[in-house]
Amino acid sequence: MRMVAVMVPVSHLADLAHRTDVASISPNRAVTRTASLLQLSTGAANASVPNRRTLDGSGVGIAVVDSGIAYSHQSVSGSSLLGLLAPTRVRQAIDFVQVGKAGAGWVGGLDLSALVSTLLNGTNFTPLLSLLLQPGVTLPDPYGHGSHVASIAAGSGAYQWPDTSGTAPNADLYDVRVLNENGVGNVADVIAGIDWVIQHARQLNIRVMNLSLAAGSTESFITDPLARAARRAVAAGIVVVVAGGNAGKTADGREVYGAVGSPGHDPSVITVGATNLHATATRTDDTVAGFSSRGPTRGRTVLPEGPWIDNLLKPDLVAPGNRIIGALSADIFGQRSTWNRLVTTYPQLANVPGAAQAPNRTLMQLSGTSVAAPVVAGAAALLLQVNPGLTPPLVKAILQYTAQPLPGANLLEQGVGELNIEGAVRLAAALRTDIGPALAAGTLRAGDPLLASGQRLPLPQSTINGQSFNWGRLVVAGGNHLLSGDALFTRFQPIYDPTLNWTRQLVLRSTVLYWPLTTVPRSIVEGRVSNQNLITAGVVWIDGNLAQSTLAGGLFLPASTWANQAATGSGFVLSGGFVLSEGFVLSEGFVLSEGFVLSEGFVLSEGFVLSEGFVLSEGFVLSESVRDPASVADPSLTGEP
User: Fold this and answer.
1) Which of the residues are catalytic?
2) Would 429 be classed as within a structural domain?
3) What is the DSSP letter of 622?
4) N or C: which end of the chain has fewer CB within 10 A?
5) Residue 196 CA to chain centroid, in angstroms?
6) Per the omega criterion (within 30 degrees of 0), is the bond before 50 cis?
7) Crossing angle for the helix pair 225-235 and 187-204, to the nearest 10 degrees
8) CA 577 – CA 198 distance, rounded (Å)
9) How many CA atoms lie within 13 A of 514 on its CB side?
10) Nearest to 624 by CA among 371, 412, 276
11) Sign (positive or negative) of CA dihedral 119, 120, 121, 125
């Protein structure tokens, strides 16, 4: 990524800003962590494909960019009690915290660029370097957040009760540590971690990256450095799953709209909100968690055409994120005296009914969108196991289209609905498996058939735990438009190209160039394009009333209302496709005016202050496990009833 992290006197910032070779300046914000029943409630236990092996994420790599992974914990290792002699599914570990710890590692006059460049350079990757990057430290995750996140995505917990298996319990894990023992890092470290994943994705078959952290940025996704880094990863073919944030309500219970942070505000990533399962595997009682951040996104910038406010429909979907049980990290021996910082600070997190808390089998529970995100990351790994040819935007579209809208919750609260792995797997299995390679080779064009030979679209209905429901059949495109219709999956849509990023009147395209005779990206360059074909004929455009910004209609209608329109065929069927050409003015979808006030809550403008004293501003990046690290009673940590 074309950026540099530096210490600069404030007096020099104006001069830097006026340089023609400087596109934007962003603060190197501090970052902190964000913080089976899952398999039953999401439909992963019901997911199957005829004549295929077990669906468990085998062969698919998931990069966890977080505080580390306890590689000897039995959730991610073999059957040895201590885990020392058992193989671990944490295939490699890279630590960017040691490059420059937030608040301590930045020293005036010290140039660390050569060290960072060496760590990132994928062309220097050798089997020997691979061995050096194997997990080996005695306390790999002193904070505890990353291990819990990893176990939700890919933990295998059937060795004890309660079964805490994640959604893809045999996927490979890659530990990219960017948060220190206090759960703190900085944006530069996170971007370095993302770049490492990009550099090594094809070498290691890393197809999914989980980011359970969020920055309180007021920048538009267009210029925000963390969003741009995540967007580069998508362009390189990686499914990027991001926690939406835990700022859904103030301390006095008022709902907050517009609190999704970076990089969750980027249209290319999958931004995940949290649901409350209410301790049951049935879905009829599931609700959107009160702490889960609501959309729309509120970043802003100035384009040549004038001021720009993002106003994107987020989150993209929701997944279980309340009191989710996962791995409790300690040292490689699992000694109680070395339990992680989170659980020693909040001992109640280790109160897991039925857990024996034996060494390297210890469990804890966390709440927040940071534990909802890895549920979706694991789901993405399952889809890629079933169909390796899926592109990141197509994975996102499948997950959205098959989601189940929860009753009473609107698009800004739940996106298009709750994750439905059972349906997503069936839809993914119906599509041809060469989509990505054909697109890269230039042989796949708009409108080409997507269904595999002899396949047809599955019935848009799922049955989970004996309860049947219809899919929502909604896909968000262009940042704030709702699409539906069979043509989304029977014909190739240009928006499934991972190098394309469409938001209202803006279309960005990334060009990914590789070093000769390697699978390592040499550069990823982004620029605006016009006359771009985006959607083919036959797609249904159903958001004709989305511009309404009242509680009675538009975005504040229950998502199920929009799903009913999709089910009944309401909307405008494109007869000739849609091309965004230069000078063409497209309806804005929805535009929620800055400062718009709701009767039961409010919409944020640039930045905001929560009444309990936590300030989300340009200088702080919030992890998703807790909103206010000082508050033991914070429901985004301990969960809701």
Assistant:
1) 66, 145, 370
2) yes
3) E
4) C
5) 17
6) no
7) 0
8) 33
9) 14
10) 371
11) positive
**What DSSP character marks residue 453?**
T
471 in Cβ contact with 403 (< 8 Å)? yes
Structure tokens at 590: 């929805």
In a domain, 128, yes or no: no
Q: How many domains does the chain have?
A: 1
CATH number reported for the structural domain that contains residue 154 in this entry: 3.40.50.200
Which residue(s) pair with 143 in the sheet? none
- List, run by run, the mean pLDDT of 10-residue segments along the chain (641 residues): 68 69 66 49 69 84 96 82 66 80 53 69 65 75 95 92 90 93 84 94 96 84 95 98 89 83 94 91 89 89 91 95 93 93 91 90 92 97 98 99 95 96 97 98 96 96 93 92 94 97 92 91 92 89 58 70 83 65 42 41 40 27 36 51 61
- Length, in residues, of the chain: 641
**Domain of residue 312, residue span:** 36-108+139-634
CA torsion angle for 97, 2, 214, 557 (degrees, to 10)? -160
Pair of tokens at residue 548: 């309404």
| The pairing of beta strand 500-503 with beta strand 506-514 | antiparallel
Q: Is 22 a member of any domain? A: no
**64 touches 210 (CB < 8 A):** yes
What gap in Å lies between CA 247 and CA 621, rounded to an integer? 13
